[in-house]
């Protein structure tokens, strides 16, 4: 581990070796196969004479512009997002696509504190800075493998469409093939400005952290140390990432703002609204749940108490 929180070169060496050993052009099935004489092709005509045909056009370079891909991420109204300016500033700086060699940041905190909402808000606000932004369900190794299979299919389909100008049917990849393909795609020398969001990595199995059900998320990282990675987790022991630790709202006005936006009612002059905000002690999920309930009923803040 380096002093700035990035993985050491030693950690990535085995990945580079594995990448070289397994390396085959990840876009191999997209290329046009030419003869042993790429500069010309011969065809025998009806007269028995050989006709020299022009060489086929070289394959187009792969495209890495996948845009914003949030998939099955929770649908959260951006207008309901409150606060977290300091945390957003850290994410903006630490996940800059111009930083080298790789950016890894972990948002940690209690359940319901707003980790996923913060990650999604950042992604929506800044996705134009990246060639691709991809949300991945990292709650278990099973869900993450499934997400990689889906991403691999999207990558292959997108590049085939870029080359042919139309969509084509892509055969289903096996899990390990898909994972390898995605890791290779993320490791391409000219593909460094992507952002992956590993959401809900709450059960890590890392050096010093034992878990019978957990897994090491780094086995899904690219072979090369590049790109930007954002992890949300309840664990505060993700030592290979820069930490952004979320806590409860310590400003009562932020709690009242959540109640206002969620309930659609004014709170500044409502004594019971302030009492309710104090009772929930700055917990965003509890405040949002109360506000949503009140918005759908005739109950007042006092009734909810």
Question: How is this fold's topology laid out?
Answer:
Elements: H1 9-22, E1 41-44, E2 50-53, E3 67-69, H2 85-94, E4 103-108, H3 115-126, E5 132-137, H4 141-164, H5 175-186, E6 194-199, E7 228-233, E8 242-245, H6 252-263, H7 271-279, H8 284-295, H9 301-304
Parallel strand pairs: 3-5, 4-7, 4-8, 5-6, 6-7
Antiparallel strand pairs: 1-2
Helix pairs in contact: 4-5, 6-7, 6-8
Summarize the structure.
The protein is of the alpha/beta class and 305 residues long. The chain contains nine helices and eight strands.
Listing every helix as H and every strand as E from the N terminus to the C terminus, the arrangement reads HEEEHEHEHHEEEHHHH
Largest sheet: 6 strands, parallel
Unreliable stretches (pLDDT < 50, length at least 5) are 20-46, 164-169
Basic shape: elongated
Give the overall average pLDDT. Answer: 82
How many helices? The count is: 9
Measured by DSSP, the beta-strand proportion falls in: 5-15%
Distance between the termini: 49 Å
Please give the order of strands in the largest beta sheet.
3-5-6-7-4-8
Explained architecture:
- With 305 residues, the chain is α/β, with parallel strands linked by helices.
- The protein has nine helices and eight strands.
- It has helices at residues 9-22, 85-94, 115-126, 141-164, 175-186, 252-263, 271-279, 284-295, 301-304, and strands at residues 41-44, 50-53, 67-69, 103-108, 132-137, 194-199, 228-233, 242-245.
- A six-stranded parallel sheet has the order 3-5-6-7-4-8, sandwiched between helices.
- A hairpin with a 5-residue loop joins strand 1 (41-44) and strand 2 (50-53).
- Helix 4 (141-164) crosses helix 5 (175-186), helix 6 crosses helix 7 (271-279) and helix 6 (252-263) runs parallel beside helix 8 (284-295).
- The two termini are 49 Å apart.
């Amino acid at each position: 581990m380096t002093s700035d929180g990035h993985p050491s070169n030693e950690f990535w060496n085995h990945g580079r070796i594995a990448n070289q050993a397994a390396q085959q052009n990840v876009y191999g099935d997209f290329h046009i196969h030419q003869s042993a004489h790429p500069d010309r092709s011969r065809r025998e005509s009806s007269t028995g004479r050989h006709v020299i045909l022009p060489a086929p056009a070289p394959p187009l370079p792969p495209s890495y512009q996948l845009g914003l891909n949030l998939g099955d991420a929770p649908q959260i109204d951006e207008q309901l997002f409150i606060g977290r300016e300091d945390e957003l500033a850290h994410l903006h700086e630490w996940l800059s696509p111009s930083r080298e060699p790789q950016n890894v940041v972990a948002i940690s905190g209690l359940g319901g504190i707003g980790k996923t909402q913060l990650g999604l808000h950042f992604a929506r606000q800044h996705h134009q800075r990246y060639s691709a932004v991809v949300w991945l369900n990292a709650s278990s190794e099973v869900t993450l493998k499934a997400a990689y299979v889906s991403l691999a299919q999207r990558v292959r389909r997108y590049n085939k469409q870029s080359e042919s100008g139309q969509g084509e049917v892509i055969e289903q990849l096996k899990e390990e093939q898909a994972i390898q393909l995605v890791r290779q795609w993320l490791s391409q020398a000219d593909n460094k400005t992507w952002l992956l969001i590993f959401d809900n990595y709450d059960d890590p199995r890392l050096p010093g952290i034992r878990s019978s059900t957990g897994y090491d998320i780094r086995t899904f990282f690219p072979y090369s140390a590049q790109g930007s990675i954002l992890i949300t987790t309840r664990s505060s022991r993700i030592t290979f990432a820069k930490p952004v630790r979320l806590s409860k709202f310590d400003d009562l006005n932020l709690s009242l703002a959540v109640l206002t936006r969620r309930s659609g009612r004014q709170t500044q002059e409502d004594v019971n609204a302030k009492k309710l905000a104090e009772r929930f002690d700055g917990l965003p999920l509890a405040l949002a749940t109360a506000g949503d309930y009140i918005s759908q009923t005739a109950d007042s803040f006092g009734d909810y108490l």
